[in-house]
Amino acid sequence: MTYYTVCHDCGYKLLKASDGSEIEIYCPKCKVKMLIEIKDGKIIIQKILADKT
Question: Vertex 37, ends 17 and 28: CA angle to 5°?
Fold first, then answer.
């Protein structure tokens, strides 16, 4: 099965992927960095915060 993922901040359609995928991506529209995992039919999206060093 193919899953579509959109950015939670701006709604931009990011990608399509299948079960077992693990993707690190920047949203081209709002420049947010995310880690997207698709496991057992569940889509997990985590925002990656930039280091302030």
Answer: 70
Asked whether the predicted pLDDT for residue 27 surpasses 90, the reply is yes
Query: Please, what are the domains in the chain?
Result: 2-48 (2.20.28)
Residue 51 pLDDT level (bands cut at 50, 70, 90): low
Largest CA-CA distance found in the chain, in angstroms, rounded: 41
d(CA 6, CA 16): 9
Tokens of 20: 């077992």
CA–CA distance, 48 with 19 (Å, rounded to integer):
21
State yes or no: pLDDT of 22 exceeds 90. yes
